[in-house]
From TrEMBL:
The name this protein goes by in its record: Uncharacterized protein
Region entry Disordered, spans: 1-21
Naturally occurring in which organism (per UniProt): Polarella glacialis (Dinoflagellate)
């Protein structure tokens, strides 16, 4: 009557062939090993009532767990508290505490929606990507100052570079939806991630003056290495 069908239990998918544990993201793709309520979506939203006033920590911890967000990767700039009157507190401890302490502010909607540039990104990759956003911000500002017009670029070899700049920006916008309006300055990145300072050893001069370099107002080598 044919061979018996061999069934695979969820526990069989806890480890790979070599005994290594399989990450949740893989098991979720198989529909196995992920408890009910765990979305691993990287974002969440919940409502706090007055009775939850002293339970923010527990509620936040659960929703971070369900969304697959590690404590060290939570970006408080993306954690928004909105009271029943529509007043919003975000990224400011004093403002958030003030809303939570006011019993007439409830119910309060708590929403965590990561920046589109970092959605789904591993936390350890964020500093390097922030450096990339700084570079793109400099490019965007230079392109705007030159009116996105290649004829405003003085040297022919730099016109080819300018053309690539336009492509870099359009590709970034299309791939991430990040229009760079809130891209940090290089000083803000260094303050937040001091070990990334070496990434700006030369570009901290050329980046802010990129439009002048493209117009031919500054010789880049003289600017970098001149006395």
């Amino acid at each position: 009557e044919g061979l018996a069908v061999e069934r695979i239990a969820p526990s069989d998918l806890d480890q790979g062939p070599g005994g290594q544990p399989l990450p949740h993201v893989v098991r979720k793709a198989w529909g196995q090993g992920v408890p009910d309520g765990i979305t691993l979506s990287g974002q969440f939203e919940f409502t706090m009532n007055v009775s939850d006033k002293d339970s923010l920590g527990e509620m936040l911890t659960w929703h971070m767990l369900s969304a697959g967000i590690l404590p060290g990767s939570l970006d408080n700039r993306c954690l928004k508290f909105t009271n029943q009157k529509g007043q919003v507190a975000v990224g400011n401890k004093e403002d958030i505490s003030r809303i939570l302490a006011n019993t007439s502010a409830y119910p309060i909607k708590v929403k965590y929606e990561p920046h589109p540039a970092f959605r789904g990104m591993e936390p350890e990759k964020v500093p390097e990507y922030e450096v990339n956003r700084v570079m793109l911000r400099w490019v965007k500002e230079a392109v705007a100052e030159l009116g996105a017009d290649m004829s405003n670029v003085r040297h022919i070899h730099q016109r080819r570079t300018f053309e690539r700049y336009l492509l870099y920006l359009e590709d970034h916008y299309y791939q991430t939806g990040d229009m760079l309006e809130d891209a940090p300055t290089h000083l803000e990145v260094i303050e937040r991630y001091p070990w990334m300072e070496k990434a700006f050893l030369l570009t901290n001069k050329t980046g802010p003056n990129l439009s002048k370099i493209l117009r031919g107002e500054i010789d880049v080598l003289e600017y970098l290495f001149g006395s």
